[in-house]
Every structure is written in structure tokens, then in C-alpha cells.
Amino acid sequence: xxxxxxxxxxxxxxxxxxxxxxxxxxxxxPEGGKKFEGxxxxxxxxxxxxxxxxxxxxxxxxxxxxxxxxxxxxxxxYYVEDQDALVSVSSVCHPYTWNPxxxxxxxxxxxxxxxxxxxxxxxxxxxxxxxxxxxDGHAPGxxxxxxxxxxxxxxxxxxxxxxxxxxxxxxxxxxxxxxxxFYTVYLHRGDNTTYAEFTMTGTYDETTGKLSCTGKxxxxxxxxxxxxxxxxxxxxxxxxxxxxxxxxNYDPIRENNG
Length: 258
Known about the structure:
- Helices cover 11% and strands 47% of the residues.
- With 258 residues, it is mostly beta strands.
- The chain has 2 domains: 149 residues, no CATH class; 102 residues, Lipocalin (Beta Barrel).
- The strands form 2 sheets. It has an 8-stranded antiparallel β-barrel. An 8-stranded antiparallel β-barrel has the order 11-12-13-14-15-16-17-18.
- Strand 2 and strand 3 form a beta hairpin.
- The longest helix has 22 residues.
- The termini are far apart.
């Protein structure tokens, strides 16, 4: 009976959140929750937190590179002010295997997919040192020592606006490889007739919010070391800090089709 009541309460909470979103043009994001948004990582693991009007979507990927296996958790969360934490409403967890040659994932069956009962909620908090900590409600105490650091959110492919200097840049987070903790950055400047291309390594500075990149031209004859700096603007554009600054927009077409 208690289990049934917990499920009914969770369902009611989800319905309440959905109705609140439907009744308003936009549900204001809680001020205290804004600091959670972004990507967080430790070697061999990444946490991605996105606000979606009525709450937060949390995605966690932890990989074991020794046997190319891993596990993915997905949570729907809401911000609890008196705990200063994100607390889950529902949880999904499943294992997977990874093919390093093709970078393809093969998902296993879900270990669980459910609304979280009282006492089984997972939570996320940020410590004074800026680290993100996760308490898995389905396995209490097993994840509380895992600290994730902010890595910004530099993923996928971005391009300059039409009429601006042709620039596009592609970011790949390499931290799921346990020996790495950086972005691989590919930068292309110019049109199809006159252009330059660079492959770089990017490291994120939590204090400045900037991604600092160093690397070389893909032209083997050019041995000079180059630098590039990127940061996100408040309106969701990417600022490439070249001469005068170049604003880039996320490019879903290029991202989906290469």
C-alpha cells in the first residue's frame, strides 16, 4: 500500500509540473538551479544537465575502458531550494558496450525505468569547491565520493552567420577515455577556395568560463603553434575570440550529417 501511495504521489508531482508548464508561456528557471546547468566530468565519466522549462534532465555516462563496457543513467529532476539540490522524480538506468573502432554503442536492457519512490530519489549537489556530487538513490552511498568538475558546454558543430567570415568549429569531449581530460577541437576558417584548418586540444577554465585551445594547422608544412579561445554568450551563441570576435551558432544540420 505504501509503495502504491509513493507511486501515486510521484505521478501527481509529474502531472503538477506538466500542468504548470502548460498553463504558462514560460516557467521561470529557479535561480538556485542555474548553477547546475552545463556539462560536468571526471575521467571516464560525464554528466550533462539541461533545464527544460518544468525541470532538469540529467544524463550520466560512465565508461570502463578496460572492457569497453559502461552504464548510462537518465533522471528527470526538480530543484529543491531548502536542500540546494536537484532531486529526481524518475530514473532510468541501462548498461551498454562500446566499440572503440566504430564509436558505436550497443545498449543492454534497462536495469530499471520508474518513477522514484520515497527514499529512492537521487540527488545532485555542488560543494564549496565547485565540484558536482551525485547520490544515487538506487544504490545509496556508492556514488557519493565521485566528484565531477565543470567543463562548460562545448559540444557539436558551430558556424558563423551568413555574410560573416566563414568559420566553423567542431568540439568533441575526450574525457570518456580515462587517460584524457580535454576537448578535441577542429577549426575551419575561410571559404572553399581560400581556407585554413586546425586541429587543437582544448582545456576549460572554470573561473573564466573560457575554452583555451592550442594546436597546429592540418597543413604539415605549417609547423607554427596556434591558439584559439571560445566562450558562451548569455544568448546561447559561441564567441570565437579572433580579431573583433566572431559569433558562432549551433549547426544541427552539420551535426546530424557531418
